[in-house]
Model the fold of this input.
Amino acid sequence: MKKTQAEYYDGVSSNSTPVALELHDDGSLCISGKGVSKLCLLNDVSFSPRLGNIPRVITLPDNATCHVHDNDLIDAFLKMHKKGDASSIIHLLESRIVFVLAAVLFTLFFSWGMFAYGVPYFSRQIAFNLPIEVDRSLGQGTLEAMDKIVFTDSVMAVERRHRLASRFDEMKSSVEGAQDYKLLFRHGNEIGANAFALPSGIIVVTDELVELSEHDDEVIAVIAHEIGHLAYRHSVRMVLQNSAVAVLVSTVTGDPFSTSSIVVALPTLLANANYSREFEREADNYAYQYLTTNEMPLDSFAIILEKITESETERGIENYLSSHPVTSERIGRFK
Ligand SMILES: [Zn+2]
Done:
């Protein structure tokens, strides 16, 4: 037999009477106090569900109620007599901070996983299933715009240009899917020593970059890196990833129209910086592979990267990425 204190309400007046509640092993309940003496059977009474530490209400057959603070005692009694409590799972979850923390951690972990692996993975899958025309259309107009804004005609010596062009033709024939790629030279002006690949398959190398190189292999290494960007379809993947991040962020913050634009922009920026580093790594891998298979000196790429970084420092360009340890890490791989 278990005994506890309770408050008894007769169901008519609002006054409570302190009573002793006895829970007997045979399933009967005995309530006794000033002017109250009742014996009830378990099947004739009902119990309110357990919610946190709110007192349990036992409703007696005559609509009188008994309010009990000792929830555990009631639970034990109900369990002993196999009277299920539908709310017990909710209570279990609510009362276990561990479950709450686990749920929060799971959400954080899941979001992080989506940003770090899910988005890049699915973008990659989608990109490789899209026709190449999608890449082409992304690059349309870019060169025309850049020719108007920043580039002027290349002033490179014709002889060097021809030499590089024929090396590029060799490259194209050895690389699958590269047959349509074009190599163009421009004078970079403000953008200095640089090279980039337009999704339309055009690789632009500036005079300034070629001037920095002592050996054609250095320029070829850079071009191999740019071909890597094209082969891995980085432009399409970047567009897909940015859209996916925007959707994810607005889902998590519940803010589809980004009124709190800073909150939305920050994870997007962080994700982008991370994605572009990942793309650089992939393109570097491609260049590494190309140099190795063609038995070209691996440090060709390291040398030109170092020179580009140096020239940017000299020109006083505040380039966050070039001063970043990532660049020295990249250079290190090719040494
Ligand atoms: Zn790159």
In short: The first helix runs from residue 71 to 80. The pocket of zinc ion is lined by residues 225, 229, 280, 283 (CB under 6 Å). The CA atoms of residues 229 and 280 lie 8 Å apart. Confidence is low (pLDDT under 50) at residues 318-325.
